[in-house]
Amino acid sequence: MTLFPIETERLILRKFRPSDAEATAAYQGLAEVARYCMWEPRSLERVRELIPRWIAMDGQGENSEGLQYAVELKASGALIGDVVLMFEDRAARQGQIGYVMSPAFQGQGYTTEAMEAVLAVGFEQVGLHRMSARCDARNTGSWRVMEKLGMRREAYFREHAIFKGEWDQEFVYAILEDEWRAAREVN
Ligand SMILES: CC(C)(COP(=O)(O)OP(=O)(O)OC[C@H]1O[C@@H](n2cnc3c(N)ncnc32)[C@H](O)[C@@H]1OP(=O)(O)O)[C@@H](O)C(=O)NCCC(=O)NCCS
Questions:
Q1: Is there a domain that residue 142 lies in?
Q2: What pLDDT shows up at residue 2?
Q3: Ligand 1 pocket, residues with Cβ under 6 angstroms
């Protein structure tokens, strides 16, 4: 099973390295980036703490939390974001995806390109049955990515939780393996 690295047209999805801390904190430390994420802006120290956990997320073994990728731009070798596939329910083969892109590189289709590759890995190599994602309804860039990936909007929760001190509004999107395969045959 080849899970690392993954090459796409413009990107390389690879394992994190300790030396990625500064580049990662440069975007994960921004309020605008953390706004709709489950975490608050991350300091360099916090990113340094997290990197060993991300490196351990290599998809190997029954207890693996999932797959964590650093996203590198082929053209320059720069780290421009990170994407994740969390393993949720082993028996039911469920996964949850997530993504963060540095603002300087947003709006250029990089996240969609990276996540197309992650969906392929999840369905073809990991053998998942369904992958889902959650985002705030106001996070247009995020749910646009899910729609471009062919995911279906399964839920729109309104005020079902307190998120960062205020009522949330949350979309849940998902795609089944069959749906993903059928869409690939058409395109
Ligand atoms: C969500 C995020 C990863 C998207 O990354 P990206 O690289 O810009 O994504 P893509 O370029 O592949 O696609 C984004 C799409 O949303 C659209 N979009 C982005 N912001 C938008 C906005 N404010 N209004 C309308 N459309 C918007 C883009 O035009 C693009 O659609 P298009 O290709 O049809 O034009 C990025 O915005 C980000 O990192 N945000 C901060 C972290 C975050 O919120 N992560 C998700 C948590 S659930």
A1: yes
A2: 83
A3: 33, 36-37, 99-101, 106-112, 135, 139-142, 144-145
